[in-house]
Every structure is written in structure tokens, then in C-alpha cells.
Amino acid sequence: MMSAPPVADLHLHSHHSDGVLSPAAVIELCARRGVTHAALTDHDTLQGCLEARAACAEQGLKHVAGVEVSCGWNGQTLHVIGLEFALKDAALARHLADIRARRAARIAEIGARLERKAQLPGKALAAKILARNAVPTRMHLARELVAAGEAKDIGDAFATWLKRGRPGHTPIEWPSLAETVARLRDAGARVVLAHPHRYEFSAGALRRLLGEFRAAGGEAIEVAVAGIGPSDLDRLATLARNHGFAASTGSDFHDPAVPWNPPGRFAKLPADLEPLAARLA
Length: 281
Ligand code: AMP
Ligand code: MN
Ligand code: MN
Ligand code: MN
Description:
The protein is α/β, with parallel strands linked by helices.
């Protein structure tokens, strides 16, 4: 009998960063939706990893330790995913704690700007988010702005209040790409560039980025991401081939109320690409 092909969702969020479900609930949803390999990849924290591991054992899924780390390259924010690494690595833990501190300062500043420039109760919103979240993100602020009736949905909250050129926009200095990849590699991680189609680089800059990422020790890029269109999928597949990257798959699931990226839903990888999942232990 042929066994079913693996379904590796290597990009998932829980309430330890800007998702809404607990790690156990995320993994339970993965199991129900036919996911066979799951990596909880919360932003800049390892807090949910042990709970995800236990839930995977209970549900019969292969667990992959994961994290999505924020970093900077050429003035833009990039997201790099580390997989299958040592959860107890002290230097990685310090690196992530430093990012969380920068995030907290940024959320307070965004709140202050929204108050000063747009007469919104930004300071109170920021204080509420900081009290409840160890990884405070702009997604939390976007949700609060929607709840307060100041935006019609998350996308509108970013477009109206948070994006560059908007009253709440506050630049943040992330650690560099090179340092980020080094911290992850030192912890034994396989390193993946998340959603390369979302960055606003020229084709040339994106090629340069991939070259530097590879030289630093990156081994894969996300290719089959939820919500990607056929032309972007094609573009990422070509980049993976040209640069010799393995191809990663993931939903970037945050919230069951968002219909388009439940766990396990993403495009099929072109057959000639090597799925990163095939390299996992
Ligand atoms: P932060 O890392 O604090 O900048 O928050 C960014 C998070 O908000 C990302 O991880 C996404 O989940 C989400 N996000 C960013 N930009 C948008 C957008 N334009 N529309 C909806 N969600 C977004
Ligand atoms: Mn997010
Ligand atoms: Mn991301
Ligand atoms: Mn993500």
C-alpha cells in the first residue's frame, strides 16, 4: 500500500507571539487537517516549543523545533526561520530576549505616536498589549485598533495607522541577517528565508540577498506559502533552483478566524525541487 505523502507545515504561530491559539490547539488543528510534520515558529520566542512537542507526541505528528526571527537587511525587515535546533542554546535565547526588549520599546513608542499625532488612546492600548504579551507585535496593536472601531480589519489597521507614512509608523533596528543566521546556525538550526516574495526588493537586490543568505549558512527558502499566487510561486521556485536552495512549505497560520491559511494549506511544490521536509530527521 502507498503511504500518504508527508504534509509539512513548517510555519505556524501560537498565542506566544501574534497567533491566537495555544500551541496544543494549533497542533490539534494540524492533526485534524492532515499535517504530518509541524513546526511552531512563533516570532522571536521559544516559549511554545515544549508544549508543541508534547502535543505532537500525543497527536502522532512529527515535531520540528522552530522559531521565526526578525532581522534587518538593506533597511528592510526580513523573517528567517530556524528549524530543528537545540532549544537550550544560551546565545540564541539572549538574542531573542534582546529582540523582545526592542519590540516592547517600539510598541510603547507606536502608542505614544498614535496618541500624539492621531488623538487615539495609543498609550493605553500599548500598555494593555505590553501587560499581556511577551512578544508584543504590531499585529496585537492592529487587533486592538479593529476592536476599538478605528479600523475595519487587520489590513486596514496597518494601512491606516501602522505602515510607513502613517501616524504610528516607528522604525525599529533589528539585528543583522548575518548575525541572525549565525546565532541560529550555532544552535544547530537549519535556516530558511521566510516568504521571499513579500519583501519589496528589486530582482537584483533579491538575488544579492539570496547570495548573502546562502553564504551565511541559509539552506532553504519558503516556496509553497499559503496565499501565494501562481506567478510568485514560479518566481520563488526559479530562485530556489538557481541558488540551490531546498524548498520549505508552510501556512503562516495565525488565527482560525482567517479563512485563507489554515494549518496544512499551501501550494504544491514543483516536483523537481527538494522539499526541506525530506532533510528533517
Ligand atoms: P511586527 O513583527 O511587530 O512588525 O508585526 C508584524 C506582524 O503583523 C507579522 O508577523 C504579520 O503577522 C502581521 N502583518 C504585518 N503586516 C501586515 C499587513 N499589512 N496586513 C496584515 N498583517 C500584517
Ligand atoms: Mn505574525
Ligand atoms: Mn513572517
Ligand atoms: Mn509568520
